[in-house]
Structure formats: structure tokens, C-alpha cells
Specification:
Aldehyde Dehydrogenase, Chain A, domain 2, alpha/beta, binds nicotinamide-adenine-dinucleotide, 479 residues, 7-stranded mixed β-sheet, Aldehyde Dehydrogenase, Chain A, domain 1, 6-stranded mixed β-sheet, single chain
Amino acid sequence: MREVLNQIGGVAQSARDGRFLDVFDPATGETIARVARSGADDVEQAVTAARAAQPAWAALPHSARAAWLTRLADAMDAEAEAFIALEALDTGKPIALIRDIEFPRALANLRFFAAAITQWASESHHGEVGLNYTLRQPLGVVACISPWNLPLYLFSWKIAPALACGNAVVAKPSEITPLSATRLVELASETGLPPGVLNLVHGQGDEAGRALVAHPGVRAVSFTGSTRVGREIGRTCGEQLKKASLELGGKNACIVFADARPEGLAATLLRAGWQNSGQICLCGSRLLVQRSAYEGLREALVEEARNWTVGDPQQPATRMGPLASRAQFDKVQAALDSARQAGARILCGGQAVRPEGRCRNGWFQAPTLIEALPEDSPLHQQEIFGPVIVLQPFEDAEDALRLANGTAYGLSASVFTRDLGTAHDMAARLRAGIVWVNGWMARDLRTPFGGMGDSGIGREGGVESLRFFTEPRNVCLTL
Ligand code: NAD
């Protein structure tokens, strides 16, 4: 059985007390590996290794740290197919999704921040009192905690800016999908990255994760995950007055006005709701449609849904694989059961899927479209993180805004209209950190990324990430 170990100070090692957790292939339900189940002792060791390595790392010129990130990206690229296979095994994602979108994005994260750090300028202010300039200095040791839905993509999105800025990292990937991050850190050691600069501690969130957040040697926590855990991390960081960036859940609305361009619309909306089995924080799980266009679009969606083949993620024709874990599968089933009891009309899907052959015990859910639920029902209000889109009609822009802004979340929204005035007015008034007009999930890595309300605090992306991972210091030359 494959053993997935901690990577501390450049050395692969088991948890101190030798405990492990099982790792499953969600497509088959079979155990594929066991991962170290770390505790506070392991975290202590990782933070110590990081602390020892950080000053020399911070002392390198930006261009030298950028060169390390580029070297790591090149090494990843050289074994792209192995990474893609590993991620597919661990997550059950269709290979094409990883090959076409997620793996290239992980590479782009490393290359983007390698370039960004060499181009970043700090501010200077003059003309009032003396000459002021801002020194941007690394924080020291930082924690990067990532979830299971986009394992390599989100892991690299955090560690790249943290390292580029001169911090040493202790990272904790999700215990559900630990394989690709482990290979990436091994590769960093193989390319010669100084030991201790990038460390990995595996294990449960409420053990290793909690110990890492609470460690006094950790100066900042960059976290992506659930709102529940985000709140806890926020409390701990608040108590210790350490920086926290919290990227949390979403219940994002796609808002379709009657004048929206119809070509490709249904396909885009289904992709927004169902990509990665609906397990993306940005998924448009609520579909609000202007009443005069509602029936026509509903038919188009049901028709388009026939193109979504669910099954073995290794098969090239498969569009949707399983949910990532048994717990996630159970959560989606429970949400659908209660929606049915609340009188929901299921337009397609609604049930679990049992493919033939090797995947018969996997955790598959049919892509689902639902309507006729009251506004305050849980499926309109709570993130379930599965391939489930809930439709709802609206009358006019005010009604659409009321519905779209009517949850505790505020991550993203999409507005589909040909009217620029409507698009701009909606974008300015939607309670969301990201608004797409006539699209979904188009990402320019230079832009701010993050949410409000239950979707989190702080922004990542471009200079926002660089700002988060540095401490600004004002120096005033009184001349
Ligand atoms: P989760 O909160 O359960 O776990 C995320 C990570 O935190 C894991 O590595 C976990 O081990 C760790 N963790 C759990 N409890 C912890 C604790 N008490 N202290 C420290 N670490 C702890 O989330 P998940 O189920 O892995 O991920 C799904 C969630 O992530 C969804 O809500 C989704 O919307 C959200 N998400 C948000 C974004 C975003 O950018 N806003 C992106 C992807 C996923």
C-alpha cells in the first residue's frame, strides 16, 4: 500500500506516533493509500524546520526565489502525465478536466508568482513630510491549508506567493486528497530547494490543522475550505493577532435576463453548476431566470443535460466523475431527500448513479436540475457542493438582486444580459467578490479573488496575495 508521508526539512517521514489515515479512490470506493496522521509534535517539528530555513530564503534576491519557483514548475511539467494520473486517482475527476484546466492552472500559479515577485514595486509618498517609502518584508513562517476539491490547483495558488515573498511554508493539504501536493513537495526537494523552506504536514483538520493554526511560530494562515472551519481559524488567529486569509464557501447565483444571448447559454450554465461534480466554490448552484425566458431556458437545459455522461473518470467520454468522498456523497443525498420532502420538482437527475464495471461501488451522483422550492429552503440557502442546480424565476432586476443577495454567502455571481447598463448596475450591487458578465469562471490571475459574508475575509490573486504574505513597513526620511 502506498504511504503518503510528511515532508519536513526535506525529509519524508511518518507521523511521530506512526498513525495513518486511509485514502480512497472515489470512483471505486477502494483504499489506494494511507496518509500520515500527524499531531502537534509533527507540527512543532515542521515549524522548527521552517523557522531555521526562513532567514536565508528571505535573504535571496527576488529573482533567485523566482528561479526556484520556475524550476519547480519545469519539473512538474516534465512529469505532467504522472501528476494528472495521480490527481485523477485521488479525486475521481475526469482526466480531461485535469489535463485541460486544473494541471495547467497549477503550473500557471507557480510561473505567475515567479514573474510577479520580480515585477512588484513598493510605494513611496513624498510632498508632505519628508520622503516615505514602504518596505515589504516577509512574515516568517506561514501556514497554507487547502481543501480537497482542487488539490493541486489551490495548494500551488497558496504556496507560490508565500514562497515568492520570502516566507517559509508549512502546508497542510486535505487528508482526503493528499497525493499530488506530496509529489509536488518531493519534487521541490529533488530540484534542490533548500530544506525547510517548504514543509508538508498531513492529517486531520481538527488535529494537525488545528495545531498548525494555533502554533505561535506561525505568523499567518492562508486557508481555503468550509465556512465552519474558517470561523474557527478566524477566532484562533484573532486571539493570537495573526494574519488570516479565509476563502470559504459559496451559494453563487447565475442570473439570466430575457435578453441574454441564447447561443451556448444552456451549456455555460450547466458547466457553471456541474463542473467537477459541482465541487467548486464558484459553482453557480442557483439559477435565476427572468420569468418571460424561464420555460424556454428550462427546456434547453434539460435537453443540454443529456450531454453530461456520468461514470468512470478514466474513460475519455466521461463528463462527470464521482463526488470526492463518501461523506460528500451522503451530504448530497441528504440534501436531495429533504428537497424532495419540501416538494421540489426534479427536472433531471436527482438520484445516485451506479456505473457498470470497476466503478460500481463509487460515489456517483446524477447531475441534477431542481425547481419549485421556497426561497428560504436549504437548497437555495446552503452550499451543498454537489452537481445540483436549483432554478428560480424572477420578475425584474430588483427582484433578481433581492434573490441573489438573499443568502449569507457572497463569493461570486454571473449576469447574462446584452444590456451593458443592466450588467453594470447588477455588478455594482450584487453582494459578491467576483461578478462575471456573460460567462463563468474566467480567471485572470492578476485580479482580486475572494468573498464577503460567509464566503470569507481577505483577497488572493496578483498583488493581493503578495500583500497578504508580506508586512508593510513605513520608513520616513525626514530629510
Ligand atoms: P474543510 O474546511 O473541511 O477543510 C479544508 C482544510 O482545512 C483541510 O485541509 C482540512 O483538513 C483543514 N481543516 C479542517 N478542520 C480544521 C481545523 N479545525 N483547523 C485547521 N484546519 C482544519 O473544507 P473541505 O470540505 O476540504 O472543502 C470544501 C469547502 O471549501 C467548501 O465549503 C468550498 O466552498 C470551500 N472552498 C472555497 C474556495 C474559495 O476559494 N472560496 C475554494 C475551494 C473550496
